[in-house]
Amino acid sequence: MKKALVCGAGGFIGGHLVKRLKAEGYWVRGVDIKGHEFSELPCDEFVLGDLRDPTVAASVVSDGLDEIYQLAADMGGAGYIFTGEHDADVMHNSALCNLNILHEAMRKHARKIFYSSSACIYPEGIQTDPNNPGLKEEFAYPAQPDSEYGWEKLFSERLYLSYRRNYGLEVHVARFHNIFGPEGTWQGGKEKAPAAICRKVAEASNPGRIEIWGDGEQTRSFLFIDECLEGVRRLMDSDFPGPFNIGSDEMVSINELARMAACIADKSIQLEHIPGPLGVRGRNSENTLIKQRLGWAPSQPLRVGMEKTYAWIDGQIKRQSSNCA
Ligand code: NAD
Q1: Domains defined along the chain, listed by start
Q2: Per-residue pLDDT tens over the stretch 193-218
Q3: Which residues' Cβ are closer than 6 Å to ligand 1?
């Protein structure tokens, strides 16, 4: 039986990854600074611990692990990473997790390690057009990410790849593009656009209105969680270190995303544009490299994932209000 460690198991992607690895027959240890908010995780072992502490990293990275998935990071949506208010924590906390885990993986001769980087590493200057044709992996340099979150991810990509070069550690690096789905943060300030929009639409009356940051013409692509995990598992089973994009190439504007959510909810919703943190103007995944190397790329229409996500968030809201009643 293969043994895996999932760092950040209490989070959105980590929680889903634990379930996927268990379904594949793995023995799984999860570690996180907090428990999972929405799910009873089927981990064989769950360690509540802070990976900024080297002794915690040393204890969870034990000998004999086949695979390590490093997803732990101090992160959130635009309301968290683009305001500038959390820059020092984001950089310090995430870098320490990466430094500690990677060093222990090298010391304990882990067979393979996965690192989750982000589309936020791409230079701001090539994302000014809402019709962005797609970000190829090679566009990362010369570097100019638009957030400290992106700079930390870029530093950590280089850190992982340097452990590969200098210590022969098998590392795999992917740049996730806006992953969404059920059991992700949907309120409280760290939620990302698909969850925030589903929540606003679900809470709105019919007819009603919701607030959208900026003019809503900024574009993104969004990838449903199941396809993200498929990409991660395929990358781990390949001999390709990356970095490569794991993202959808179905680009939409935030206004289109909001209209899609309203249509799923069968509500007549007016969009009210207000000032707010925005990020880059246009971003899309470019999937030539993943198709070439893995013979696979995400293909599920955005609408399919949005329907599942809307249904889950709507259920959370109804549960919350029935608990309060
Ligand atoms: P998440 O915030 O739900 O999960 C991250 C988890 O890391 C959280 O549960 C958090 O408690 C944990 N963590 C943070 N600091 C820790 C510490 N010091 N010790 C132990 N655990 C700690 O985020 P997610 O959406 O599941 O993202 C997972 C990874 O994928 C992150 O590295 C993130 O940067 C990356 N990523 C995500 C997206 C996305 O759209 N969700 C996009 C690009 C990259």
Answers
A1: 3-179+221-246 (3.40.50.720), 185-220+252-279+301-319 (3.90.25.10)
A2: 999 999 999 999 999 999 999 999 99
A3: 8, 10-14, 32-34, 50-52, 71-75, 93, 97, 116, 118, 176, 178-179, 192
